[in-house]
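Notes from hallway chat w/ T.B., transcribed later so I don't forget. T.B. wanted the structure written out for a chain they're using in a teaching module, and asked if we could keep both sequence and structure tokens in one place. Agreed to drop them here.
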Amino acid sequence: MIGESSSVDNSKSPNDARLQSFLTLAAVLLRAQSRQVVAQLVVNAAADFCPALTLSLLGQPGDFDTSVYTAQLDGVLLAPAELERWEAKFEYLLPNSNRKGSFFIDYADTDHPQNILGLQYFYYAQAQTPTQNYGWLIGGAREILDEEEQHYLRSLAQLTAIALENAARFEALKESAAETTLVNEVAGALATSLNAEELFHTFMTYLRNLLPIERAALAIISPDWSQYELAFSWNDQPGRVRRGYMRNLPLADSLLEQAVRQREIMVNPDTSLETSFFKVVDGARLIIPLLAKGQAVGALKIASRKAESFREDDPRLHLVEKLARLFALALVNSRLYEEKQLSAEFDSRVGVYNHDYFDRELAVQVEKARRLNYKLGLIMIDMDNLKTINDNYGHLAGDTALRHTASLISETVRATDVVARYGGDEFGVMLPGCTARSLEIVSEKARRNVCETPLELENGTKINLSISVGAALFPDDAETPLGLVQRADAAMYVAKQQKNEVRVGRKARLIKVSERELERGASEQRSQAETLVPEGEPLDMDGLDTGTWAANDYERFLNWLGGDRQSVVAKVLRETYRQLSETRQQLYDVQHRVNQVEDTMRHGLRAMSQAIELREPYLASSGEKIQRLAVQLAKESSCSPAQISEVEIAAWLVNAGRLSVPEYIWSKNGQLSAYDWRRVQQVPYEGARFAERWKPLTTPDLLLTLRHHRERYDGLGYPSGMAGEEIPLLARIIGLASAVVAMHQTRPFRPARSLSSIRSEIEQASGRQFDPHLARILLHLADKGLLDFLE
């Protein structure tokens, strides 16, 4: 590590040193876990073992008959953007099918336009195992290499093939492990809910991390496979689920039918005849069948504006299929649960809710009305002649009369009102947000609808029905669920004495409603129904018109409340504003206290860093300098604000591990003994252990940064010997910043270096000790004079 002393044996001959370096490199390459890291280490090593090489290039076979290049030119590892500019010339260098063998020399035409830098000699060494070709290691030089250098180039190519094979296997295992982890995570997340809407939202949260999705819809197939519905839609902005209103869509000859019958994902299908979801602006489309235990239950329709977003050869689609099967199974369980729950709350013989549901829902509605300060109407209805029908026509006719009456009552009230069977021939109706007069109008209209619509039996017999109605209003007539039922039931009992009447309130008064009021009430109800679902115009399922959605939701909410709209709006806005103000103040107070605690802890870190510097005076101001330089590198590397904050904290803690090493070791001006060097190599571990006490400022990523900031890009660092991008990004940033500051400071074993000397050292160590991308950023900062604060 630059800036730290170590024990080095210089007694060996150059050949022995080169062999030892090659063996060390072999150990690093064989345990590398990334093919990119292997390639970068190899091209750097080729230049080290063969100093005469101007160019070292590794060309690996890629997808679709392309090649992937990694190159070093004049001692500098080329960045991806630079590789793209050189790609055409690199393709010219790759050997054709008439190659001369696994190793050969090509004497190039220096005047050829594709010849790089006019190089005269090109050395080709094939990186190949007995079963797989991993490309060519190519060296370009202006002078011929000696036999030993050519031998090392051939050996390096063979070692490269083995290392690439190991890295490829590890990447495959890592990808498989990550896939298994994701599948288990999704399965666990889907198992936490039995609500279909929540399941769809959870699934889309994971799916959007795999594919570039802008819109999606969940299609559910009917049991008889004749129709389907778009039950839910999802839009990337704002990323939430909405219920769908497109029902009874024909399944026959649709894209959905093709997908579920083929049982495979359809990529960019022809949608000229399918307009239920996909839009003209959708450049890429997917239809993912949902199969649960071999049975198709529906499909996902997914769209994105970019035409190249989805490809048939995309390996991610195999993972999507696995996740879709998990979602399909969870969806089936959800539907079974909803059916069971509905059967427990629903009277299937009559077609309305049952008594148990009525009792539970009434308590909820009364509490909601009390909290939001609106009125709640309750209507109790008793059929006048059900016993006569049973006696004269049989109990089957009686059941038909019950269903007929329940249907007429349901048609009379709003979609948001609750109709339930209370007893044998009694019904209860809850009307949230109604006024006293609207309660009378609805009660009278229900009575007239039943009275004016006779029941027709299968044999053609028509039977006239009538009902007796009692109604009460919360909180005017009663303030508890039981009291409300008792008031409405008492009014119904009075109406029952005369039959076919409506009685309302505490005094069970007989109401009078004009024909004009009844017609106006019917008109208002039709208007409300059209607001919920416009006739002949299905709601837009692509989620783009969010303004329309908000307006529909708002209108639906006001219609559900009923009553004086202006008064309701004013009350809701006042209450909402009050609650928001209280919540905002509470959040402000909490955030203020959190900021105070964090500021105190940051001041403590700074004081601790300064105390360490007092122990070792030559470290003066190193924590502050590392912090400033590391933050600049993090910003230039497009790190997130959270990562920049972690870099800042890590800079104050980077020297904490030095406290575990006796001071005499740091003050030595000669080589360290093996024992002393082992103590130094434990510094990162000790620093991370010390930082664990500063929670919550120290996150897991920050601890990894402190533990691995002494690693080298070529894998020769400590404590773990990580290489390349295996080293966490923040650790690479802190490692570079601390090395630069250390080089600029006087140490007992060496004098301080100038900025120009540091710049030269960084250029030489780029791609070896330091991340080449970060090294280029640092050199750019030096060119702009942003490192002058080190002086």
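Follow-up for T.B.: The chain is about 50% helix and 15% strand. Might be a good example for the class.
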